[in-house]
Specification:
Largest sheet: none
Helix content: 55-70%
Strand content: under 5%
Distance between the termini: 18 Å
Number of domains: 1
Shape: globular
CATH class: Mainly Alpha
CATH topology: Four Helix Bundle (Hemerythrin (Met), subunit A)
CATH superfamily: dinb family like domain
Structural class: mainly alpha
CATH architecture: Up-down Bundle
Oligomer: single chain
Order of helices and strands: HHHHHHHH
Length: 168
């Protein structure tokens, strides 16, 4: 995967999010049930947390981050949910957008070698590929979340335009 290809995948996910968010009334964004008990706001806060963590990794050129990484994924996600569930929607949207933009900037600042060779990141195991670590925490999960949001929109009678019905 080249840096340009990787950037394009991230930009594409960002475009899909922007299109989806433009279709959903704000009054619906805090309603639970998009993914289990999670609302769209909860999903966006969850994604923003992972974006923030990957930005830190790229900026430090090291596997750094929250102590939550030591928890199993389901427990980590439950803690992230609890930490964010009471937050204001506008605050979450602003953070999501800010971290999405910063994620793109952080990837753009890396060299091709940074994305493909683990030696550029302190403490990264030699059999890990940096772009895959980043993608697994800041791009690939977006596909599943976008699919969940589309399904929820359909079940709740939220009209989807052709731009929001594209597959992730």
């Amino acid at each position: 995967m080249t840096k340009d290809e990787f950037l394009e995948l991230i930009r594409s996910a960002r475009t899909q999010w922007q299109a989806l968010l433009a279709e959903i009334p704000e009054r619906k964004m805090s309603e639970p049930g998009v993914a289990g008990e999670w609302s769209l706001k909860d999903i966006l806060a969850h994604i923003a947390w992972y974006y923030h963590e990957m930005i830190g990794v790229m900026q430090a050129h090291a596997l750094v981050g929250s102590e939550l990484w030591y928890l199993p994924p389901d427990e980590r996600n439950a803690v992230i949910f609890e930490q964010n569930r009471g937050r204001d929607l506008q605050e979450v949207l602003a953070e999501f957008n800010r971290f999405a933009a910063q994620l793109l900037e952080a990837v753009a600042s890396l060299s091709e070698e940074d994305l493909t060779k683990p030696r550029g990141f302190k403490d990264m195991p030699s059999d890990w590929v940096p772009w895959r670590v980043i993608a697994g925490n800041a791009y690939l999960p977006d596909e599943d979340h976008i699919r969940s949001v589309r399904e929820w929109m359909g079940k709740n009678g939220i009209k989807m335009t052709s731009s929001t019905t594209k597959q992730a």
